[in-house]
Amino acid sequence: MLFIPYEVKTGKENMQIDSDLLDNAIENQSKEPVFRLYGWSPACVSLGRNQKDDFVDEEFLKDNNIDLVRRLTGGRALLHADEITYSFVCPVSYLRNGENVVDSYKEISQILIDAFKKIGIELNFGGEKKYKGHKDYCMLVSTGADLCYEGRKLIGSAQFRKEGFILQHGSILYDYDHELLEKVFKEQVDTSSIITVREINPDISKKDIINLLSNVK
């Protein structure tokens, strides 16, 4: 597996790098998967590929130094701030069940399950469940592709497929600013259905998570 170490970029740069990794893999017909870790600066709202943007207050985002980008992948909006993001690119044929979308999510996500288990965080796949909260905020919807801790969502992931290759990326919540979430999504956000690394174990630093994931195989 080719590993690209953690780096902090703008939202536009991060989405371009993920897109380039996918396109390069297709162009070279790469057999080896690519695993990348990254952060966001400044904070950024990313919209799903086909998501409407009518809820977005661009003036508020600009005033608060928050970027706005659109992802290759689908789903709902995310506020990327105090998190670690991963991306994984591979040919469909690399996976045992790559043609099956749900199974491919689970196979790729097993990398994260195995890593977090090493620090005592047991993760399980989510279920098809909608939670109370703003219809535009992705983390309030748990699907079979997401990873949960004791029934609360910690990692949300999404996929995009192109010419026999898969790009899967996802957000690992280290912490979040509840007040800022509500301002961005213009509604009270019930966060009882999500959890952060810091809530699970405040002694685990963001650097600890980055180091942990930097050693996956």
What is the chain-wise order of helices and strands?
A: EHEEHEEEHEEEEEEHHH
Rg, please? 16 Å
Low-confidence stretches: none
Describe the largest sheet. 7 strands, mixed
* Spatial strand sequence of the major β-sheet: 1-2-6-12-11-10-7
Residue fraction in strands: 25-35%
* Arithmetic mean pLDDT: 91
Total helix count? 6
Q: What is the end-to-end distance? A: 7 Å
Q: Based on helices, strands and strand pairing, what is the structural class?
A: alpha+beta
Helicity level, as a percent range? 25-40%
This entry's quaternary arrangement is single chain
Shape: globular
Number of strands: 12
Describe the structure.
With 217 residues, the chain is α+β, with helices and mostly antiparallel strands. It is built from 6 helices and 12 strands. The protein has a 7-stranded mixed β-sheet with strand order 1-2-6-12-11-10-7, sandwiched between helices. A hairpin with a 2-residue loop joins strand 10 and strand 11. The radius of gyration is 16 Å and the shape is globular. The mean pLDDT is 91.
